[in-house]
Every structure is written in C-alpha cells, then in structure tokens.
Amino acid sequence: MKKILIKDFGSDDEVLSPLNPEDLLPIPGENLEDIKFKKIKPETLAKYDFSLDGFSALSLPIPQTKEEEEAIVNSFLKGLEKLFVKENNWGFLQPSVLSTEYCMQCNTCNEACPIYVESGRKDIYRPNFRPEVLRRIYKRYFSTSGKLLGKWVGADLELNWRVVYHLAELVYRCTICRRCASVCPIGVDNALLSRELRKIFSQEMGIAPENVHRSGSMQHLRVGSSTGMNPVAFKDSIEFIEDIIEEKIGRRITIPVDKEGADILLIHNAGEYVSWPENPAAFAILFEAAGLNWTLSSDSMGYEGVNYGVWYDDVQFARVALGQIKAAKKLGVKKIVVGECGHATKALVSIADRLAVGDLAIPREGCLPLLESIVTSGKIKFDPSRNNFPVTLHDPCNMVRLMGIISPQRNILKHIMAPGMFREMPNCGVDNYCCGGGSGFAVMNTQNFPNWRDNLASRHKARQVLEAFKDCLDPSIPKYYCAPCSNCKGAARDSLIEHFGFREKYNIIYAGLVELMVNAMVDIPEPFISWEEEF
Amino acid sequence: MDSLTWFISGPLLYIAVITFVVVTGKKILYFSSMPRHLRWDLYPVPHQGPEGSKYQKVDFSKLKPQVHLMHELWEMGQEILFIKRAFKNNPKIWKSSFPLHAGIYLCAVWMALVICGAIVELAGIPVYKTSPSTLAVVLYYATILCGVAGAVTGLAGTIGLLWMRYFDEGMRDMADFITYVNLYLMLLVFGSALLAWWNVDPGYNWIRSHTMSLVTLKPVAPDLLIAMEIFWFSVFLLYLPFSRMLHFVAKYYFYHDIMWDDESMKPGSKLEQDVIASLHYKLNWNAPHITSDAAWVDQIPADRKEEDKK
C-alpha cells in the first residue's frame, strides 16, 4: 500500500491515495472482487477534482489558471486565521485551540476509527491525519517559529491548491462520530477539527456538499425542509400518514397539527415523512394511546427536525436551531420533543442549549425517555410475544456517545421483546460505531461518493450487525435491525440493505424503535411490522 | 568554569522557574478567559454518577443537576495517576508512556522532598542516615528512593517512546521533528539527573545543600555534573510552557470544560450573560450565505429569509 506522509499531502499525483476494493477488510460472506466502483467519465474527471482517493464528495472544480489556484490558497488561509478569532468562532474557540495545540501524535485514536481500520489502514484516513495537516499549515503560516524555522518546529507542509482541495475532500471522509475523542488520553478531539475545517470551507470559501448545504440547510431555511417539503406538502403528508394508520390498525387517528398550548411539540426528521412514514405513524399511535397532549407544527421552521449546520457551518446551525425554537414559542407549547433522529436531538437539545437565551430557553428533549415512560407507565398494554424475532439495536452516536442516552431504549426493549430475542451488538453503548451515515454522509449522493460511503463508512456497522445475528443468519429467520435515527436508517437502507444485500441474503430489515413498540401493542389487531412488504 | 556553573545553577534556574510560572499562568488565564463555547460534551460524564446522563430522564430540565464528586475524583485519579485511557485503548504506548509520566511524578515528589530537606537543614536538623531525627532519616531515604526511581523509570519510558518513534511505522510517520526534540530533551533531563546521582551525589546531599543556597538567595557553584543536571532541567522548564508538553494543563480544560461540561442554560445565569455577549460579536466570514460584519444575533432565520432566496 502506498505510504502517504503529511509533507506529501500536496503532491500532484493523479490520485494521492487511491482506495481500491482489494484494500478493504472483507466482511463475512463478501468477495471483494465483486465490488465495482462507479467509473467516472473522462469529461467529469477533467472538470472536477477526484485526486484525494478517487472519490468526490464536493465536486470541486479544478482551477484553470494560476490566479484561480492562488485564490483557493489565499481564501483558505483567510478562513484558517478566522477560525482562531473569538468574534468569528466563539462557539468552538476553546475546543479548537486546545485540540490544535496539544495532540501528542500517539495514534491512540487510529484503531478507534472504523473508517481507518476498514480501509486496510490507509494513512490518509487516520483520524489524526487531517488535523495534523491543519496543525502544520497553521504553524507554517501563522506562528513566528514556523515562519522562521519551518520543519525544525514541525511546520513542514507547504500550502498549494492541491493541499486545500485534498483537505476539503478529506474532512468529508470523517463521520464526526467522536469515537477518536473518546479514546484520546488527553482529550484531543480530532473529529471536532474535521468539523472546524468544514467550517472554513463553508463559512469562508462557500464550499460544502450540495446535499448538505444548497439543497440541505439553505433549502430548509427557504422552504421549510431539507427534503423540499413546504408547509402545504407537510399537511398533505399528515393526511397520508393518517391513511397509513387507518390501514394498519383499522381505525383513523387525527394527528394534531398546530395545536396551541400543547404539552409537547413533536419534531421529526422530515425524511421520515418521505421515506419511512410508518415511523411518524407509530409515534402518533403511541402518543394517542398514551393520552398525551401533543402536536406537530406546520410552521415553516416547525416540522423539520434536522439541523445540517451541526455538521459543517455554525451560522446555518444557529439559524436552524433558533428557527425551530421560535416555531415552538409561537405555538406556546410546554416543551419540544425530537423524534428518532440522532443529530437533530443532539443539535436542538444539547448544542443549541447555549444559544437559547432569554425567552427562547424552552425545554427540549429527545424522544427515548418519553417513550420509556409510556412503556413503564402501564398506559399501553404490550405483548412481548408479538416481537418474537431476533432484534439488535444500533446506538446512534449523537444520542449515545454524545448525550449519554443509553438505558431508555434498552428498558423499552426489555418490556416489548420476547425473551431471548434482543441481542446487543459488539461494542454497544458509548463504545458504539457509526452507521456510516454520520455528519451528512447519509444524504450525500453526488458523484461517486455513495460508493465510498456504502463500501467503507458503513462497513464496520455491517460487520457488527452480522456478528450480532451470527447465530441466526439463516434467511428463514426474519431479523430486525433497530435504528432509532433517521440518518442511521438512511445508511442502513443504502449500505446494509442495498449494497451489502442483507435483506436478500439474511432476511434482515431495518426500522426504528417505535415500530417495534406498536408491533407489540395488544390493541393493534395485525402486526405493524412486515418482512413481506417494503417497510 | 565556576562562574559558568554558578550562573547555570543560580540565575538561570531562577529565570527558568519564573518563566515557567509566568508563561504557564498566562496560558491558564488565556484558556480560562475564552468565551463559553457551545455544548460539546462526551459521555460518560463521571460527575453524573451511576444514574448517567440527565438526558435519559423526562423533563430533565426541571431536575436538579446530579453531582457525584467522588465518581469524578475516582475517574480523574485513574487518569492522572495511571493514564487509564492509554492503558485501555493503546496498551502498547502505555508501556512506555506510563513509566515516563510516573518518572515525572516521582521526580516532582523528589524535588519537594529536596526542598523540605533543605528547609529542615536550615532549621538545624541534619538530613542524613545518621541524623538524630527519625523524620530526617525518613526524609533522607525517601528522597533517594523517589529521585532514583523517578529518573530510572522516566528514562526507561523516554527510551521506550523514542524506540517506538523510530521503529513503529505509524508512530514514525505521524511524528514531526518537535516530537523528537521533546523526547531527547526528556532523555537529557533524566539522564543528567542519573549521571549526577551516580557519580557525585548518591545521597542527594549536594543538591540539598545547593537548594539551601537557592532558598536563601545565595546560590553557590556546585559540581559540574550537578550543574549539568540543573542546566537541562532549566532548559526543560523554559521550554515546557511553549510546547505541547504542557498538555497536563490543557488536559484539565479538555475534561472539565469540554467533555464533562454539562451546565444547562438557566435564565439570568452568568452563562446566559456570557452567551448574550458572544452573540453580539460581529463575524466576518466571507461565504455568500453569511452576512459579513453583522453580529451573530443578526444571522437568525427571520432576518435572513430574503437573503437566503438569492
């Protein structure tokens, strides 16, 4: 395998560190020779940069003139300088400065990173590689010692447009799962530095993945949802979900929308309405049966729970978070509950807490504790024997490692699963692995990036799922991969099901936690979950 | 030569100690005065105790924050004394890193014992194996034990880490020049300490006597090997606050101010006042979707709708 040193990061190789199928660590039953990456057309290769690893997440146009090359470098340096100025980055200044200055290069983070390990340990995917590039550039261009002494003080990387482009792509090879930070003896957060670098590209250079920025957070702020769903379409989708409920349980439920003064404003990831409507349907069934005083909002900032800004841009993050909180204030609800979406929960409940000043400090919670309270309150009768099939649980990084929500979902499963049917994955809880869709990957579908994501980013999750079900892989046994997070479900759909073929090979389906809960409800005549129809 | 050894063992050491204290203090002030950042906690957070995260509770914002100080101290103790995370996640490096850090701790205790011994001697009680004071005898042997054990384990750990930097491919590839500078400096500090002990100062009487002269602000010129030991220690102190070896200070902020910072926003709190002040900072990011030279508070959606439509 080609060795890549930091000082070589700006080399003009056609592809600096190509990822080939044979480099990957195979999962059980997989033949790496069957993997075929999408061929890129010559005209596309001539136009866009694929020179990091042969993949493109950003569709960066190759500069055509010296002036364009210089503009890229200068703009990056301006952004890098701003990253360490409190007016521009007060929200993450202390963590950024500390993580930039105090890495001891011990590589402890390396083996914690599923992408690095599953790639066959390619140098560029080390979690400390990209931050080290940042450190050496910063030292070279912004420290007196670096300017004077260069490599003798660790400033051994000369900046050119290729370094900037390689780095821009490389920060989108990290899912920001923060597993690396959780093992660092010092506490250095190399995942945070991936995010900080993404901010330079977005906030200064206007570079961000199409699906995350333009048709993501910008569309969210403009239309009401990153899915493109406007408030009218949202109301239509509610009617559609009421139809699903009627079909599934034999009676119609009216889903409350814009109910002023409700106890709870429930905000789903709007992707649920489009891709997995059974999920909001299951929430509605449970909330209605539990007698909760709740509502959805049709305000243009009130029905979409995602906050893509959390992955790449503080300004977009703040706009979305405060918009969501203001929508709740308009309705006069007592609190916001975020549905099954990890990053949305983390963004609104935790990170945005330090933006919610004055009358914006409205209580916000994740849905799992509320769901647990429904189960333990006895308001709904559950028959665990209805869930008499093997289930494993995915721990979304944002809810578990980043918020410590570990026991509610397990307590729920204890109450609703037939004995012996729930099994933990290896490395569960705060030690979990990302689904491969984290930090925007689940929605990034331009160029050949999905090839990289499905083959590499989700590979370790595929390995974990197979390990969890190793005693029952026979396809005659239906199995359920429970992922209480929309993005994690997106990754499961694209990678585990479509790419690795887990449904076809092993009869594994994926969905959320609420679907399992409704499936176990005594009052529901027919099974809510089906292995036969598209779920 | 005497004037050189006098300068090294007196004025240079004073300058090094003062520089270390002042620059480290300035760094601490710098880290402490940074704006309160957005929440970026990482779990488990030990002071939340066996119940774990408050996010696991319904209406958690109405609950009193759980503070289990003993849990936090237990976790801190394991990390500070034994580098628990390295032991758990990178045992290969821990085998060298732990002796290096244990060596530093033991040398710090040794220094404290040497200073204590100097003060005891200034009080008229000889610190020696035949001293009439039992306490002074204990002090004498404890000083030897800590000094020798510290220098030996520190040196062994440093050699182990250097070995890894040269012969472990990944460690070598990710290291910059400064990493080697740091390790060779540690080698010189521990090595010169051992050399002086072995050759001229087996009972640390010389260094204790020299410390007495330093404490009374009348430094004398010691033996050349002791002057070398002091020289490398002084260089280490002068360099330390400017280097990444100051991570022992940074580590406090990483743990307490970032990973374990779970303070919630409360109306009227100091936190709220700090955040309001930060929201009024004017940013000057240049991307088209950002209003440059406007405050953070002016970037919110209601005010941006028309702009976003561009």
Describe the fold and architecture.
The complex is a heterodimer of chains A (535) and B (310). Helices cover 44% and strands 5% of the residues of chain A. Chain A is mainly α and 535 residues long. Chain A has 2 domains: 6-204, no CATH class; 217-519, no CATH class. A 4-stranded parallel sheet of chain A has the order 2-1-3-4. In chain A, strands 6-5-7-8 form a 4-stranded parallel sheet, sandwiched between helices. In chain A, α2 (66-83) packs across α10, α12 (231-249) packs across α14 (278-290) and α18 (367-377) packs parallel to α19 (407-416). The radius of gyration of chain A is 23 Å and the shape is globular. The two termini of chain A are 41 Å apart. The model of chain A has no long low-confidence stretch (mean pLDDT 96). Chain B is an all-alpha fold. Chain B has 3 domains: 2-34 and 89-242, Fumarate Reductase Cytochrome B subunit (Up-down Bundle); 37-82 and 247-268, no CATH class; 280-308, no CATH class. Helices cover 66% and strands 1% of the residues of chain B. Chain B contains 12 helices and 2 strands. Chain B has helices at residues 2-32, 69-82, 84-89, 91-122, 134-167, 169-174, 177-199, 205-215, 224-239, 247-259, 270-279, 301-308, and strands at 282-283, 294-295. In chain B, strands 1-2 form a two-stranded antiparallel sheet. In chain B, α1 packs parallel to α9 (224-239), α5 (134-167) packs antiparallel against α7 (177-199) and α7 runs antiparallel to α9 (224-239). The longest helix of chain B is centred in the middle third of the chain and has 34 residues, at 134-167. Chain B starts with a helix and ends with a helix. In chain B, 36% of the residues are buried. At the A-B interface, α2, α3, α4, α6 and α9 of A face α3, α6, α7, α10 and α11 of B.
